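Subject: two folds for Thursday's group meeting

Dear M.,

Sorry for the delay on this. The cluster queue was jammed most of the week, so I only got both jobs back this morning. I'm pasting them in the order they finished. Each block is the input sequence followed by the predicted structure tokens. Could you check whether the formatting survives your parser before we put anything on slides? The first protein is the one we discussed after the seminar.
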Amino acid sequence: MDTIAFYISNQGLMHVTRCLALIEEMVQTTTNHIYIASGESQNRFAKRYLDKYLSKYSNRISYSSIKTDVGLMGQKNSASVDISQLENELKEYISELPSLVDSELEKLKYKNPVLVISDISILGVLVAEELGIRKIGLSNFTWCNYYENLNMDQQILQVFYDAYNKLDCFLAYDLTLDLSYLKCEIQKIGLACRKIDNKSVDEIKKHNWPSVYIGNQLSPKLKQTNMHFDRSVSRLSVNILDTQNHVAASELVVVRADWVTLSEALISKTPMVVIEGDVEEEPIINILKEKNLCLTIQESELYNLDILELQIKLQKLETSKYENNVGTIVNEIYGYLEESQHQICL
């Protein structure tokens, strides 16, 4: 059985969550084995999700818990990063890459890998290069965007530029940062999220309607927030798996510019209030503002939030025309794979 290997950033759950949208489509529409390489917590989340919703395909999914990247060392934005410490972490990681690649080659030895998809780990690119198979980048940024802004050591930057420029193709989600430094073909693919289950949405609405979805990045601040809100408030479990259904079941979402939640809201046509403040998020927020797809507030406004007033302002927004492009993206991936295999045969 041919294997498609996903190498997924081990920074937070954004990357693994959006990859799950593609993986759940792939296992239901193809016969390939899916190999997921990411951090322990990311793999744990992926396994819980797939075991709950797609348990009958579990024998076609395997996991490798490995350090796929350093990212920003768990920080949300560059302003929080100790640049000297980050450079040291990256130098150490770069020195470990040869052994990490060897470890992955050993794990993949009998899995017949035919394609690597990276979101957005250079480890996956280097593994694919050693295997001599095609490699696709799949993201709305690479770590070069962040490291360049931080004026990182040029030798470190060059390692990342060189790795990303080994990609055969880059599938760029909407709300993407500048990728002009990539030499490969860049294909725009819209947005994707895990399947929204209308039955689950209706069930959530039955118990929690009307409701407002407030992103978990903001939850620590809620105790200090004076919300003017004529609705009941309930706290979702941190172990909730199907955020896409809760977003779709809400009247509006209040969130930072987290790509996954933004995509879930845009696809489900749920109005958005986005918190401004982080420099890295400005390009995404500006795109949304230019399209009149979100209302923005400062973090300080969160402490005296008038939901009813926000709802009045949200009526002036455009209705999102985004659709869930998961099926189209998967077809593009397989079309690219078939094309490359045909070229090999020739």
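Second protein, same layout:
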Amino acid sequence: MRQHFFQHVARSLFLFGVIPALAASPAMEQYGRTTPPKAPRPSPPNLYDNQTEVAPSHEPSIKGGHNAETYPGRQPHGSGSGAAIAAGVVGGIAATVIIAKLIEHHEASPEHLSSNGPGVPKAFDMSGVTIKCLIGPDWPVVVDFMLYAPGTVLVEIAGTDKHHFVARMTNTPNERAYGIFHMPKDFGDKVQVAVLQVHAVPLGGRQPVSLADAPPLRVFGIGGGVNAVGSVAIDQLSFQPAAIHPKAKEVATYGFHAHSAFNGVKAEFIFVTLQNGHVLVQQDQEETLSAVPQGERAHGTWQGDKGKAGEHMLQVRAWRGIENGGDWVVAWSPDIVDVVK
């Protein structure tokens, strides 16, 4: 269903005029087809009126008895799958308002997200990741990120009630940092479904034509709600060793630390590759875990024998459910495990 959702987004971007319509082109008119005069297209709203500048920190508040994480991990290698994954990344940048309107007709009710957690695309470029989530007025939001080149990170959040908010943050390249900010107090009057998009733009704020033109970005964690923010409430992700051989019965071990209790938790093992300096990921396998109590370190093993060969990251999605506040986290490991087949 998630793939169908993002395919529908692409079609709708066409209908909304984000992708130029071929039918109105001069190439169609040369066959003698007459077209009525076009009414002027209304100017789009200024999406950046409601925004804030965020100063990222390398030392956010210590929570859970350990310092903030600074380990950047290593970049994945390139692979023959990069072009195919890039071609399958649907949507685009600066389209959050349109996408937020579309999710009203998909599996994105507050109850659905409360039961199933934040929605992450099956394939995406980390320089522009879009998440379906719950958000509320005055909620804290955190992003743990690292730019590989000079640029600015925009966090755009659009609610289905048409509220829109943008946080901007700039950081020294190749240094991991945390951006923490609060949603406006007038961002609706209750917890609602929203689209949160984290993407990179060149210094100066110029929107790139496509994600391929954006500065390379790696995201380590995103969270929303008081129980998801301090640093990121799911952290210290580990995924080892650097390579496993499933035929030799080798397995990978994984773990993570929970600052808060989460009643819904999934460990997902995502294929990762590098394409033109961008980190691209694709869903491969997943495991549903038990609820994790506050302060616990969860751990497990992954065989990798039924998944795709190549490099993988650990992706953890955790959520509390709307009856417990609606807080949620998505986190990615800095470690990479190469599945050798």
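Two things I noticed about the second structure. Confidence is low (pLDDT under 50) at residues 4-35, 41-48. The helical segments are 2-15, 26-29, 82-88, 96-102, 110-116.

Cheers,
T.
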